[in-house]
């Protein structure tokens, strides 16, 4: 196959490209330029897509003897990921930009361009597995499964991929642990074998999400309100800077509170109010989610699933039911309550290690308690 290897400049994508080459594929390395003003150097392990990263990717490609290109997708990334991120926070929701990037950039824009240029598939350094099985009618079906290394598993952020995208995707690292990947990179002579992993939000290099949002949205003073009594107990400079489950930085007038800690239990974008309450108000076990993406055929009726609402969160046993009139809406009833679940987050559904699909949480509630 002719394969585009997405090369970020990190150790994972480097080894993924090398493994695709070892498997006999015709591989071309591509680095995605996603920043409109790429920094020269990374800030420790935060951020990505710097000029340094592009250089690291090119050096690996040269060592492998494969062609290498930089594809400028900064404008698409700004529109589909960064502007979506701002709009979601402004609407009082908590988005996951990694899922949006995988959906809109790596397996839409990148894959579409690769196919248009005559390539057959895209390979990335994500920790997940593609498992092939033969269906009852004799067709080969490709399923998305969790990685062997549970601590690095990234199947959650790949839950937005549909059946057609999975048919043209390769994840060569899914059967290997991270320490073994670093060891393999060193054996191959890659200078980036010990390069630190990037983490947090790639386009917020200093990790200050609230500060980054404030620069784009400006200060929007409002009230912090007790969710039970309705009393004003503090103030803030923008409701967009808060997310459900948050405890620190609430700007409370603690003289009017008892000694129990307070958490954000709601963000009202329309009134620019932040609602706070005690921990017992955080637990939810009923989710309504939309924008469902199925990694195969959508389930029918009520099915038993595992539900995960954070990239490295716990999987909770649950029942899921796709809306009878709209396959993009799914209702999930968790066996036990989870705290700090916010609209805008994604719920990814599993059958064992297999990813069934994902959806964006629109509403949360507690069984027997009005939403």
UniProtKB/TrEMBL annotation:
Q: What Gene Ontology terms describe what this protein does at the molecular function level?
A: ATP binding; tRNA binding; tRNA-uridine 2-sulfurtransferase activity
Q: Which gene is annotated as encoding this protein in its UniProt record?
A: mnmA
Q: Write out the GO biological process terms.
A: tRNA wobble position uridine thiolation
Q: Where in the cell is it found?
A: Cytoplasm
User: Could you tell me which residue ranges the tRNA-specific 2-thiouridylase MnmA-like C-terminal domain spans?
Assistant: 285-361
Known role: Catalyzes the 2-thiolation of uridine at the wobble position (U34) of tRNA, leading to the formation of s(2)U34.
Q: Does the keyword Ribonucleoprotein apply?
A: no
For this UniProt entry, what is the primary localization, expressed as one broad class?
cytoplasm
- Stored SUPFAM superfamilies: Adenine nucleotide alpha hydrolases-like
Q: Which residues bind ATP?
A: 6-13, 32, 125
Return the protein name: tRNA-specific 2-thiouridylase MnmA
């Amino acid at each position: 196959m002719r394969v585009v290897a997405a090369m970020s400049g990190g150790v994972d994508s480097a080894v993924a490209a090398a493994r695709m080459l070892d498997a006999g594929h015709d591989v071309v390395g591509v680095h995605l330029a996603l920043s409109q003003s790429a920094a020269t150097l990374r800030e420790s392990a935060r951020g990505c897509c710097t000029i340094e990263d592009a250089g690291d990717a090119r050096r690996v490609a040269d060592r492998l003897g494969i062609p290498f290109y930089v594809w400028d997708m900064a404008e698409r990334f700004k529109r589909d990921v960064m502007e979506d991120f701002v709009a979601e926070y402004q609407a009082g929701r908590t988005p996951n930009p990694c899922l949006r990037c995988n959906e809109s950039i790596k397996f839409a824009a990148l894959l579409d361009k690769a196919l248009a240029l005559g390539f057959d598939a895209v390979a990335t350094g994500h920790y997940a597995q593609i498992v092939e099985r033969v269906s009852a009618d004799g067709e080969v079906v490709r399923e998305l499964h969790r990685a062997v290394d549970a601590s690095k598993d990234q199947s959650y952020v790949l839950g937005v991929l549909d059946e057609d995208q999975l048919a043209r995707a390769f994840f060569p690292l899914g059967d290997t642990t991270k320490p073994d990947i670093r060891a393999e990179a060193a054996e191959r002579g890659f200078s980036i074998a010990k390069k630190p992993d990037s983490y947090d939000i790639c386009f917020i290099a200093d990790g200050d999400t609230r500060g980054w949002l404030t620069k784009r949205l400006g200060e929007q003073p409002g009230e912090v309100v007790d969710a039970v009594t309705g009393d004003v107990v503090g103030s803030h400079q923008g409701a967009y800077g808060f997310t459900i489950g948050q405890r620190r930085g609430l700007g409370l007038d603690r003289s009017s509170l008892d000694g129990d800690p307070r958490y954000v239990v709601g963000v009202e974008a329309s009134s620019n109010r932040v609602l706070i309450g005690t921990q017992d108000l955080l637990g939810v076990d009923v989710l309504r989610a939309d924008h469902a993406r199925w990694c195969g055929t959508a389930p029918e009726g009520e099915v038993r699933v595992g539900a995960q609402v954070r990239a490295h969160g716990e999987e909770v046993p649950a029942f899921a039911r796709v809306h009878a009139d709209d396959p993009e809406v799914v209702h999930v009833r968790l066996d036990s309550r989870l705290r700090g679940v916010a609209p805008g987050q994604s719920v990814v559904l599993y059958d064992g290690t297999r990813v069934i699909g994902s959806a964006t949480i629109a509403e949360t509630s507690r069984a027997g308690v009005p939403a």
